[in-house]
Amino acid sequence: MSVPLNQINNYLDHLESEKNYSPLTIKSYQRQLKTALEDCKDDAKKGWQALDIHHFRGLLARWHQAGLTPRSIHQRLSALRGLYNHLMREKQAEANPLAILKAPKMARKLPRDIEIDEIFHLLDNMPKGSAIEIRDHAMLELFYSSGLRLAELAALDLFNIDFSDQSVQVVGKGNKTRRSPVGDKALTALKNWLQVREATADLEESAIFVSQRGSRLSHRSIQARLKYWGKRLGLSTPIHPHKIRHSFATHMLESSGDLRAVQELLGHANLSTTQIYTHLDFQHLAKIYDKAHPRAHKKKS
User: What is the pLDDT of residues 190-214, one digit of tens each?
Assistant: First the structure.
């Protein structure tokens, strides 16, 4: 095609030298650009300036009709947008025709929830001999008990726990404050941790969960501890805070079916956000259907 190949190579060199992209990522960009530009070679005979948003809208439609997945389309458009931005910086293109082009929405990928048996195995079999083990057990119990986000748990201060009404006050997204119930198991684990916390925490430290150095436990440290316990106790998949939050939401919905209540517990502003947690295993749905639908019962032979 008439589009100069050296301009594409210069862009790929830019990704490697200035953006520090990995060789695999650069190879992926190269492949996406080659395919995308090959698809519009007839329109590109006059160079970059001949390609406008109308050409790329038609290209988008052809990719969609050809059965290309939204993720693949996103990858191609991302590579093309980056190329055009580079060409504009190099004064080789006047505008980026893809700047306002919207790609099809991708399905939101959710983490696989942890089975209830695995959650119980994890929480019931954690050793509680050292202060660190007691702390980690309290964190995991609270994560699953209240469905907290990582940032919410890390930011908790001593005054946020109310043992009298069995609740925790958290500051969620948008600095919105909510109060969430805390179960008996988590409350007991928190009490055990608070009994040994003073020996570790700095005198003026208000954080509930502190490191061995006495300061507030970081996000990365919390993630690392969860991953450690999941691996040590033989869980089938790696454990991270959002996976536990997702499991909390899924298990609550399976047991109660109350979407509005789970919305409040998770601190979601919109119900549509909570609805992404309602993906239930088909076998589970089939069992509910067979049990509940008046015309679904199979006749006994």
Answer: 999 999 999 999 999 999 999 999 9
**Does 245 qualify as catalytic in the annotation?**
yes
- Higher-scoring residue by pLDDT: 71, 287: 71
Bigger pLDDT: 273 vs 119: 119
The more confident residue out of 92 and 231 is 231
Strand, coil or helix: what is 181? strand
Q: Single out the residue of 239, 236, 206, 235 nearest to residue 136, CA to CA.
A: 239
Do the Cβ atoms of 252 and 259 come closer than 8 Å?
Answer: no
Q: Phi/psi zone of residue 227: left (φ > 0), alpha (ψ -120 to 50 degrees), beta?
A: alpha
Structure tokens at 189: 């684990």
pLDDT in tens, 284-295: 555 656 676 666
- In tens, the pLDDT along 18-36 reads 887 778 888 888 888 888 7
**Active-site residue identified among 55, 149, 179, 185:** 149
Sequence-ordered alpha helix ranges (H) in the chain: 5-17, 23-39, 53-65, 70-89, 116-125, 131-146, 150-154, 184-197, 219-232, 241-256, 259-266, 271-275, 282-292
Q: Mark whether 197 is an active-site residue.
A: no
Catalytic-role residue among 242, 284, 287, 297: 242
Residue 130 near residue 137 (C-beta atoms within 8 A): no
* Catalytic option among 41, 46, 173, 176: 173
49: how many CB neighbours lie within 10 A of its CB?
Answer: 12
173 classed as catalytic = yes
220 is catalytic: no
Active site residue 277: yes
Find the farthest-apart pair of alpha carbons in the chain and give their distance in angstroms, rounded: 79
The pLDDT > 70 percentage for the chain reads: 80
31 is catalytic: no
Instruction: Please tell me the distance from the alpha carbon of residue 130 to that of residue 196, in angstroms, as a whole number.
Output: 9
Dist CA 241 CA 229 (whole Å)? 12
Closest residue by Cα to residue 245 from 96, 139, 156? 139
